[in-house]
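hey can u check if this looks right to u? its 538 residues, i copy pasted from the old doc so theres a chance i mangled smth
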Amino acid sequence: MFKVLIVDDEIYAVMGIRSGVNWERLQVSEVYEAYNMREALKVFEQTSIDVMICDIEMPKGTGIELLEKVNEISSETETIFLTAHSAFNFMKRAIQLDGFDYLLKPIEFDALEDTIHRALESILQERELYKLREQYKPYYEMWRKQKPLITDKFWNDLFSGRIVCSPNNIEGILEKHQLSGLEQFVFLPVLVSVESWLREFNTRDEEIIEYAIRKGAAEVLLPNGRGEVIQTKQGVNIVIIMGDQEEMNDLSELPTRCEKYIQSCLEYFDCNISCYIGRNVSLYEIADVCKQLLEIEYNNVNRSNQVYTLASYCNPSIQSMIPRISTWTILLEQGKLEELQEEIRSRVSEIGQFERLSMAELEGFRNEFMQMAHYVLHKNGLNAVELLKGQDGLLLNDQPRSLLQLEEEALQVAGIIHDELHQNHSVIRRIQYYITEHLNEPITREQLASYVHLNPAYLSRLFKRELGESITDYILNTRMSLAKDLIMSSTLPISDIAKTLGYYNFSYFSKMFRKVYDVSPQQLRQQSADGRTEREAL
């Protein structure tokens, strides 16, 4: 329930508002009255006020003067001004002080009631965000202190392929990382994918909450605390369950624990996540299994809050293909041409080791590779026929005639796609272009992911890795940058500029602008005008 204070030096105005508004429908439990600034401040000393409805022109201290003091003692209070005159200087100062809105007298009670409702909705949103931040506050200090240590070097090197474990080198590698004995365990990786946030968070908030999500995963998904929860340098959250063979064969309740964990994240951290469960493997195989889980996540565009298992998702023959396709796709998306070329040469070399090499092996590679190529081109809106046309027809379209021709054409196709993606048509550039063209509309991460046919969690990691900020922050900064340019270079009313960028609540627009530039839109325009005046005087 909410509390409202009505401040006006005219007693009949106060009585009219008190009787003309349906307070019960607005869930307002208490309505206070004050007839000047001194009485209003006494009310604030005695109780907290959610919304103040205040006349601007009062003899014993104006509404503007009252708001200046209220901002010092109760910054959460939203203020709605009433005025008999649309005095520009008053309105300008009211907006600078983050007044919520203003209405002209005589008041239409339906309009006033609607404005109060919007102010209360704004308060509720702020309270929910504050409550959420209080919930993850214990994690903040832990996150701040441990941030440089979050990514364990060994696991990152293993998953990225910088180290490859084999029976011949495992003891030396583990001893170097002070992990001797790890090769005796069996491992089960679980990929935790943050698919979407249910409210707008800035980059720092997202990082802290993801840290809290990993801490929660350690508590819920690691039996007896045995294992690791890491975030790779690519932003992927992976739970690594470990134990002896007998312990790892007794994980039948893991899907149920994952479902419980998903619901907890939805309730406490306002996010949709999915869990992708791998299979029991040795240390030598875990990197390939994680690549398979990434491929499943990569292709999961539509469904969140689900538990997926590798065993039910693909058969053994497909599993053997997934690491290759997944690796090639990701390398192309990230513009790592040299690594992709090395992958191609390695795969062709493996084929060349077959004792009885036949056209079937060459055809199998061609099909694998072209499946990946067509997928990437289609996802980015590119035409394979136009791009891959060689002198003798479509590259890698016909059955290859030799191992050498297969390798040469695969390398050529990789180069063509890489150049096209990363010179003109990269996914991130397409997203940036889409955002620029739709700044006046609501834009969500899920909407952007659907536009480029990507999983939202994968897109979010890719975007942040390339640009260094979250999608939410990028959209806000892009809108506010355009607003800044228009404010400084045009005479358009600032309220019209806000509407052009999709902000119909001027108070919210002003708050977001101040968040980015630490100055209100009106102050910026005044500074810009003063600067022009000085230059003209010179």
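The CA atoms of residues 396 and 405 lie 9 Å apart.
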